[in-house]
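Before going further, learn to read the protein records used in this course. A complete example follows; check for yourself that the lines match position by position.
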Amino acid sequence: MIELFKLFRNKRMFMLMFGFILFIAVIGFSLSDRKELTWPEKFLGDSVGFAQHLFYKPAGVIAGFFEDIRSLRTIHEENEQLRLTAAAYARDKINYNWVIKENERLKEDLNFTERQKQVNDYKYRIAQVIAVNNDTSSRTMVIDLGSKNGIKKNMAVTTVDGLVGLVSEVRPFTSTVMPITELDETSPTSNLIAATILGREDESFGIISGYNEETDRLLMTKIDEKDKMIVDDVVITSGLGNVYPRGLVIGTVENKQVGDFGLTYTASVKIAAKFDHLTEVFVVEVPSTEESAE
C-alpha cells in the first residue's frame, strides 16, 4: 500500500496509465460500433489468413501422409494374416479331402475282401504300388510286399475293380508285377489268361491273348461259334491253366466278331482295372491243395 501510494503521488506516471487505459477503451468502443474494418485491418487479416493457409495445408498433407502410412501398415498386416489363414485353410482342406478319400478307399477295400471271402477261399494281401515303369519295352510296377511277406512268383494281382496282372519277380521286401496290358500272342502260354463269362462259366470260354494299345482293349480269342457271349457280359478268369485263380474280373465284352478263319470268334474286352491311378492292389493267395483238404 505504501508503494502504491508513492506511485500515485507521481503525477506523470498516473497520467500515462490513465491515458493508456482510455485509449484501449476508445478502441474497443469504436470497433463494437463499426460494421466494416479499415483497409489496414483488412490487409492485416488477409495476410494473417494467407500465412495460416500456407502453413496449415502442408501440415495437413504431412499429417495425412503419416496417417496413410499407418493405414498401409495396418492393411499389410491384415492381408498377411488373411494370407496365412487362407493357406492354412487350403492345407487343411487338402488334408481333409485326402483323409476322406483314403477312408472311402479303405472301406471299399475291406468290403471287397469280405465279398471275396464269401465267394472264394482266397487270401488278399493288400500292397502299395511304390514305383511304375512306363518303358514301352517292359511296362511293370513295383509293390511293397516280397518273399518275407509270403509273396511268390505268378501270384495274381488285382484291385477292387479288376485283374491287374501277375507277380513276375520277387525280392525279400518288394515284388515286380507284369500287367495284363503286356500280353500279346508271342507271350508264353502260361501268361495267357483263360477266361469265361460271369454267370455262364460252363457255357463260355476264350483266351485273353493280347492288348491293343490304341484302343486300350484286350483281345479275347478262340471263342466257339456257338458261344452265347454278348456285349456287356462280364469277363472273368476261368481258373484253367492253374495260373490265374478262378473268378477274378477282367472286364466287359465291348464287341464280338468272326475270327480270321471263320471257325471261331474274337471279342474286344474293356479292361475293368484303372491303371492310370493305381495306389493299392491285392496279391491273391490261393490255398494249396493240402490247406484246402485240411
Notes: Residues 120-286 form a domain with the Thrombin, subunit H fold (CATH 2.40.10.350). Residues 94 and 100 are 10 Å apart (CA to CA). Helices lie at 2-9, 11-33, 39-119, 289-293. The longest strand covers residues 123-133.
